[in-house]
Amino acid sequence: MVKRWLPWVLKGGISLGLISWVLSKIDPAAAWDQAKGMDIGLLLLAVGLMVAQILLGAVRWALVLRALSAPFHWVQTFSVYYIGVFFSIVLPGAVGGDAVRMWFARRNGLTLTTAVNSVALERAVTVFALVLLVCLSEPVLVMRLPDLPGIWVFPALLAVCVLGILTLAALDRLPQRWLRWRVMRALAVLAEDTRKLFFHPGFSLGTIVVALVGHANLSLVVYCLAVGLGLNVHVLDCLVLVPPVILIMTLPISIAGWGVRETAMVTAFSFVGLPASSTLVLSILFGMVSMLTALPGGLVFLMAGGRKMSEEELAAEAAENR
């Protein structure tokens, strides 16, 4: 019981603590008045773009599965991916959604190794493309904010990502005697799958491009919401400031990014003169749009056998307690 609830308590505490800290810096009444003036048309456009984001994520995973020669139909790919999106907002940290996606992928016919490796590599491509986008947009960021500190961080992080991918791809070059351990054999298969994806230009470039489009699309979601709130923000500001915020949100230290997103967004947009109260409203709206578009994944989960999954978990837990 402690193991089950401890992540919720810790990450929930971080989310509540960060949100409380941001709220202490603003006028809640003014923030609420601004939220009530949201343009409904632009809000609906943001929702539409977020739905497109889910489709882009499914396409990204489908490309990874194709690189691994996994026999997964498009409908299965979209359904399982959408289920993972749903659980990423109801479980503490994004990795919960990935674990559920692996479970359902295995249940729908993939081998356990392919299910785990495809999700892990899709996550790796997503993070790599995000860091790459930040680095590509950095000249624009420096031009608009010449005194911005720490501009070396993201190029260094990109180098770390490249080194990490190369390391993954070489894990099966380890001494053969190490392969007697199951975990080392699994890492050797992961190395082979990494080369199939990243060392094949047709697969790697296509997957990275889709990932880049997805990250840019999230920036457009924020821009639509900002314009709908009447904020004086340029589209370039969103294109260069939102990706670092999304990158920070990938850290599994809060529940669905709440608190971390608000703190990061308030900090980022303060560089372009946006008031903290306005940015907080923008961040909360972004989170609510994300939740709204992710919730139908719960229906997909039930239609795909979610009740049976719950029964199996309860049976396994009962057997463990005995």
From TrEMBL:
Protein topology in the membrane: Multi-pass membrane protein
Pfam families reported for this sequence: LPG_synthase_TM
Primary location class: membrane
Signal peptide: none
Domain of life according to the entry: Bacteria
Transmembrane segments: 41-68, 80-104, 124-143, 150-171, 203-226, 238-260, 280-304
Keywords: Cell membrane, Membrane, Transmembrane, Transmembrane helix
Any Gene Ontology CC annotation: plasma membrane
Cellular localisation: Cell membrane
InterPro entries, alphabetized: L-PG_synthase/AglD
UniProt entry tagged with the keyword Transmembrane helix: yes
PANTHER family named in the record: BLL5419 PROTEIN
Protein name (database record): Flippase-like domain-containing protein
Naturally occurring in which organism (per UniProt): Magnetospirillum aberrantis SpK
